[in-house]
Amino acid sequence: MRDAAPQTIYLKDYVAFGWQVESVALHFSLDPHKTRVKSRIAFAPDRDAPAQPFFLHGEALKLISATIDGKDAQATLTPEGLTCAVPDTPFVFEAEVEIDPANNTALEGLYMSNGMYCTQCEAEGFRKITYYPDRPDVMSVFSVTIDGPHPVLLSNGNPVGTTTHHAEWHDPWPKPAYLFALVAGELVAHTDSFTTMNGRDVTLNLYVRPGDEGKCAFGMQALKASMKWDEDVYGREYDLDLFNIVAVDDFNMGAMENKGLNIFNSSAVLASRETSTDTNFEGIEAIIAHEYFHNWTGNRITCRDWFQLCLKEGLTVYRDSQFTADMRSAPVKRIGDAIDLRGRQFAEDQGPLAHPVRPESFQEINNFYTATVYEKGAEVIGMLKTLVGDDAYAQAVTLYFDRHDGQACTIEDWLAVFEEVTGRDLTQFKRWYSQAGTPRLKAEETWTGDTLTLTFTQHTPPSAATPAPQPHVIPIAVGLIGADGAEVAPTRILEMTEATQSFTFEGLAARPVASILRGFSAPVVLEHDADHPHLLAHDTDPFNRWEAGRTLARNTLTAMMLKGTRPDPAYLAGLRTVVSDKSLDPAYRRLMMALPSQSDMATALHDAGHVPEPDIIHAALEALRDAIATELTEVLPDLYEDNLVIEAYAPDAMQSGMRALGNAALSLLTRSDGGTLAQQQYDAADNMTQQLAALANLIRAGRGEAALNAFEAQWKDDRLVMDKWFGLQVIEADPEDAHEIAATLTKHPDFNWQNPNRFRAVFGSLIMHHAGFHQPSGAGYRLLADWLIKLDPVNPQTTARMCSAFQTWKRYDTDRQALIKAQVARILATDGLSRDTTEMLTRISNA
Ligand code: TRP
Ligand code: ZN
Fold first, then answer.
1. Does residue 242 belong to any structural domain of this protein?
2. Mind telling me the catalytic residues?
3. Cα dihedral sign, 800-804-809-810
4. 14, 41, 301, 711: which sits with the fewest CB atoms below 10 Å from its CB?
5. Measuring from atom 15 of ligand 1, which residue has the nearest CA?
6. Is residue 496 part of a domain?
7. What confidence tens digit (pLDDT) does each residue in 589-637 have?
8. 123 lines ligand 1 (CB under 6 A)
9. R_g over Cα of the chain
10. Of 703, 628, 646, the residue nearest 673 (C-alpha)
11. Is the pLDDT of residue 2 over 80?
12. Beta pairing partners, 493
């Protein structure tokens, strides 16, 4: 049986809670199956709030007792919570409940992971710990005591007294329940310290399981760099004596910003040269920064309700991108973000799951931690900054911090500080928050006399979420390049507000080449018939120079598939020139060499009115790689040799870029040498980046077996490395074998399917293997459906997220559509399917 009729929650129905929570005291007696939680909560009526019955959220709790001012509360219980009569004056609610962390496989609330206790309360997990008004606009000061068998007993804030098996914590900063955290375990600390800009000494701990001590140093460095950066760039100082991070093996997402006690998926914090790739290092640095930055954008200022999620997530993603751009290469970061946005967010925005950056309804909020809320939410902040300028941005953000510290806010509050500082009316800009869908921006040029006129037309395709989209405010960064390759006009921001609008560039000596949407200045699809080879050779904007190459690659792939043409010689020659240019950053040259993904090409074909055929896309990409390998024959050996890093390993931007470029050369060289060089690199590798790249190439060359066995023998006791071993075999499989390899891996003794990282290693990789997942037999769809049905009762949140694999079904041929729809229907028909998965699949199939 499914949950009783799923309830839809609407933004327009927001009502403030009727009471202030003056203080919260919690006591935990930890036990795997019978943890007791005692709470003492001081409530006072909020005279400004509408009258309402007293209701506390609570799920899967065994109530032992509940009192109001010491007398039995005579509570009425429902599956969602508790109601009781309360006085019209301040009162104290006390309760004792029993919970079962050892059987909590959903990893939400208090649960166990490898014998340690930990919590995940965002978004609505606190109600699985005790009865409480579990909503972000209820903020209070928490005191926590813990009795437990473990040496390390942690909660939020500052420690106020700890004896053996007993700990007391006090968090002076009012917070919503979703930021509560508790950890208890046999843990060891990697300790350091940071002195803030006002001289406050902060102790920093990274807690890990014994054996992982050697993987802490990088995360700690990243934390200190983040703390410094937030002081330097945003003037934000840390506000407690202690900052703790804990690594946990079983975790649904990347990490969580609980006040003073961040909890991380171990994959998002543990790093070492031997076990982590350069990509892992960069990701860890960004996630540490992200969670740390939430201390101000999220914790000190939080969200009024979950519809405002982008208020903290969009802004915090924007801040962590700025951080990475400062720590590494800004153009490389921007290109990476654009690739990611197009791959994940555009797919979401153009399919049945499309929703605005600020959604207006949901059934299960966990389903709205999406690329749209996070990544498009960050793009919206970037556009705002482009429109108002850096100084006004800084002033507005400072005003936001000053005015709203300690509050639970809305997007209206955020936009108001920008309106006040700049005098602008942001009514139209706000459509970026309220309208779903990716705008398409068409650019046309006319040249008369000495004037170039650019005429833009914007159109956002209607969707179920936004049936009649209105024009957006679009900042369009434009520069002009002369026929000789020199810049004729530097970047200028055109502010488009109409459906169709023209802008002129006057006094030009000769017709220039327009470079439009520089730096990817808005999250739109640009249609512009530009001189791409000229821009690839000469654009002074690094983003658009890369973009020109990407457009040429996409165009030539499309022509190869639809017209059977040979790869475009202009693209190949342009690529050779850029890649051979040693004055360019290796990481940038590496991005130039990368081709659009198979699913990018499926999107491109669909956009052009064709039905994508995954096997043909796969074959076209292989053919283009062959052509590139041939074109670069003379260059590749040098490209490889020059980028073999010989100095001591560092995961910094320069070395990472060199290794990435060298490994891009390796994969092209492997196409003709049968894997000789890859084997050599595998045998010599002293870091995971080189080892894993070599292994991937050996698999592709059809001689991976020995290396895979050696790799397994070497790393069988390291979970995070074994995740790579599981994933790589699926990713590198031939399309027709991918599902079978995945199925075989599920029989491996180390396939702990209840661990989200391991489940994602196999099935996330299968989903990412476009041609493999979409095999015409439908075997990929069936296998995924089998496992989602199995996982749903255990972990609905992770199951629901993976359902997005089916969101693109409408793009494909009718046979595939029928096969996908059949699997979606089969999952939906499962008895007791979770609310999370039901909502996702219902939205997908209602397209
Ligand atoms: N707030 C977290 C972040 O972005 C996201 C998160 C971590 C989360 N765990 C979660 C969201 C579980 C929902 C459920 O930094
Ligand atoms: Zn976040």
1. no
2. 291
3. positive
4. 14
5. 256
6. yes
7. 999 999 999 999 999 999 999 999 999 999 999 999 999 999 999 999 9
8. yes
9. 27
10. 703
11. no
12. 477
